[in-house]
Amino acid sequence: MIWEEVRKAHENQWLIIEALEAHESGEKKIIDHMTVDDTFYDDNNKALLEYVKLHKRNRERQLFVVHTSVLELEIYTQRWIGVSADK
Fold it and tell me: Most buried in the list 8, 33, 69, 82, measured by CB within 10 Å?
């Protein structure tokens, strides 16, 4: 599915989606096709807790928590930088 189809099918809900096809453009991940893994009507905390469980079991999956009130799905990629302090 594309984001517009997902939004119409799941109005005003928190979702866990999986990116089936995606690419990066600058600092953004553009999801071309996705599937809805789970839905949560009004509780983002439950959605986040379920995301954590799913991510621990399946780290290779590209899972995201999103809300369908967002018109354009924009996911920013982060690069983590480690810092160490010498004593």
Answer: 33
